[in-house]
Amino acid sequence: MEERTGIDLERVDRPGKGPVESITARGSATPAEHELIVRDRRFDRGAMVPRWWHSNDPVATAWYNSVSASLPRGEAFFIDTLRDFREGLPPKLAREIKAFTTQEINHTREHVAFNRLVADHGYNVESIDQGIQAMLDLAAGRPKEFNLAITIALEHFAAIISRQLLAKSEYLDGADPVAADIWRWHATEEIEHKGLVYDIWLHATRDWSAWKRYKTRALVAALITKKYFGNRIRDAIGLLEQDGYSRRKAKWSLYAFLWWKPGMMRRMFFEWATILTPGFHPWKHDDRALIGKLESPYADAVMPAE
């Protein structure tokens, strides 16, 4: 089995910049020079996005609204989980937890604001938040490593969705510009920090056998992704019912959107499945080039920091 125990630190020389710490070998594929950047974006609160903000399509809008409504509670869980692993971390990981936490706090702030806009259109999204809490309550009383495995699974799901959004413009074509910019900004930082939780996992479980580490994370990934994805479908169907869809029509319209056209779930299935393989690491798929796509197109939507 390819998974190794532990994490080594070494000094790597960068031309003109001197040595830097990096996580190397023993299971980590995070690029040595990779760093997390906090982009404190605040999007235009005064620009009321349309009720069907994605291409005037209730189905596309319902899917993204379902995901957005799930994020604040989930991101708080990620932050709380990593807080339990700060002691004794290698310095680079300790610094990156701080950047990760700030990124996730910013994401939560903007999605809370976005979710208020959704609610202002008459949608009930409170039950979605409550459903996320009920799912996360399943981890109550379990070892803290279990919470870390849940976070790995959900961060992996977030990263591959983010890769799809940034690599294929068709997913957000026709969307309201402010809403689309929120999703692209969030997707950029999800890709950027996609390996951090896994590297913390490698450090935290360095005394586990390779089999125990693999079995735990693969089982949790399969179970929690199924639960999360199933809940997102359930909640998107609920939003469509609020638009007057019958349950049957809502279900088939959503499945067609997710699996046929544009078919994001179909396209990303095998990428998701890599988490079930020995030797998995998020950065074995190097998509840093997508991070650079954020650099210019957001000025019209961003407000100055308060």
Automatic annotation (TrEMBL):
Enzyme kind, highest EC tier: hydrolase
Keywords on record: Hydrolase
UniProt keyword Hydrolase present: yes
Enzyme Commission number, as recorded: 3.-.-.-
Superkingdom classification of source: Bacteria
GO molecular function: hydrolase activity
Coiled coil: none
InterPro entries in alphabetical order: UCP07580 (IPR016516)
One Pfam family, short name: Metal_hydrol
Name of the protein: Metal-dependent hydrolase
Organism of provenance: Altererythrobacter arenosus
Lineage: Bacteria, Pseudomonadati, Pseudomonadota, Alphaproteobacteria, Sphingomonadales
